[in-house]
Amino acid sequence: MSTPRRKALITGASAGIGATFARQLAAQGHDLLLVARRGDRLQSLADELSGRHQVQCEVLSVDLTRVDASATVMAHLDKLGWHIDFLVNNAGLSGHTKFAQTPWSQVGGEMQLMMTALTELTHRIAPGMIERRWGRIINVSSLAALSPPGESLLYSAIKSYVLVLSQSLDMEFKPHGVHVTALCPGFTHSEFHDVMGTRNIANHLPGILWQQPDAVVKEALAAVMAGKPVCVPGWVNKLLAAIMRPTPLWLGYRLGKAFNPFK
Fold first, then answer.
1. Given CA atoms 61, 62, 63, 64 in this order, what sign does their dihedral have?
2. Which one from 7, 98, 159, 238 is the annotated catalytic residue?
3. CA nearest 10: which of 50, 60, 56?
4. Which of 155, 161, 228, 253 is catalytic?
5. Active site includes 218?
6. What are the residue boundaries of the structural domains of the chain, listed by start?
7. Where are the beta strands (DSSP E) in the chain?
8. Average pLDDT of 88-116?
9. pLDDT digit string (tens) for 234-256?
10. CATH code of the domain occupying 7-258
């Protein structure tokens, strides 16, 4: 009797880092549920991966800025009869206007997408992982979470939440065989800057600051399998993180675990 393939859920899977996670996990033999708004992109990717790697690729077109989106995802998983072994919370966006000048609908949408949906999906899926004594969760944060605060940078505040939440959950889940890793990439070649309207700014940055999605995802997957709670990919980003953050991440993690009030 063959062993069932592990099942992976990837949000923001239609392009960039999300699509790269899909390609690398499919190559490792995972069945996939790809989630994003652009259903045509998802289906094209699913067809490519199922044909190349003989894995099952399902797609769900849903806008994760909607408050009912996570429930929609879970209902789709129930319909498929799937439990998720590998969760990648990758979906994200960033505004480029001042906080007070940005409509609340946009501000709330960013928070819903990158904080609430991420947290809700993790909360709904993690208990099954804990029960089965195996699971891997990657939450995509950012190198911005490690940088000093900047004017109007809601994105940095949100990604700081993702970083701290991921470390806290890793402390809770790891004794049950579930690893949680916050991925903190720097500048990565993708459509992100085109969608956000910041391509002109990005084009003026030195080439040494940039990474390819393949390298970022490869390092992230190795980190979560090794049980590392934080992954800063690339030596340039590691150097920048060390300069920007006086307390080393590994030391902060150990101190937080040692002073756990729920012990």
1. negative
2. 159
3. 60
4. 155
5. no
6. 7-258
7. 7-11, 31-36, 57-61, 86-89, 135-140, 178-183, 187-188, 210-211, 230-231
8. 93
9. 999 999 898 887 778 788 888 88
10. 3.40.50.720
- On whether the CB atoms of residues 89 and 138 are closer than 8 A, the answer is yes
3-state DSSP assignment of residue 37? coil
Contact (Cβ atoms closer than 8 angstroms) between residue 244 and residue 146: yes
Residue type, 158: I
Report the side by side order of strands in the sheet with 7-11.
Answer: 57-61, 31-36, 7-11, 86-89, 135-140, 178-183, 230-231
- In terms of DSSP H, where are the helices of 54-196? 69-80, 104-111, 117-132, 154-173, 192-196
What global pTM score does this model have? Answer: 0.90
Question: What's CA 256's distance to the chain center, in Å?
Answer: 22
pLDDT tens-digit readout, 151-184: 778 999 999 999 999 999 999 999 999 999 999 9
Reply yes or no on whether 161 is catalytic: no
Question: Residue 191 above 70 pLDDT?
Answer: no
Query: What's the pLDDT score for residue 200?
Result: 55
Q: State the DSSP code for 235.
A: H
What integer best gives the mean pLDDT of the chain? 91
Question: What's the pLDDT score for residue 199?
Answer: 46
